[in-house]
Amino acid sequence: MDGSNPGSDHTPTRMAPPPDAEPGTAKPGAVEPRAGDPPTAAVPSTAAVKVENLIVRYGDKIAVDRLSLSAFSGQVLALLGPNGAGKTSTVETLEGYRRADGGHVRVLGLDPARDHAELRSRIGVMLQRGGVYPTMSPLQALRLFAGYYKDPAEPEALLDLVSLSGVARTPWRRLSGGEQQRLSLALALVGKPQVAFLDEPTAGVDPEGRLTIRRVIEELRERGVCVVVTTHELAEAEKVADEVVIVTRGRVRARGAPGTLATSVPARIRFDASPAIDLAGLAAACGTTLSAVREERPGEYVLDAAPSASLVAAVATWLDANGIALGSIRASSASLEEAYLEIVQQADHGANHGADDGANDGAAEAADNRAGEGAGS
Question: Cα–Cα distances in Å, from 36 out to 33, 44, 372?
Answer without folding.
Answer: 9, 11, 10
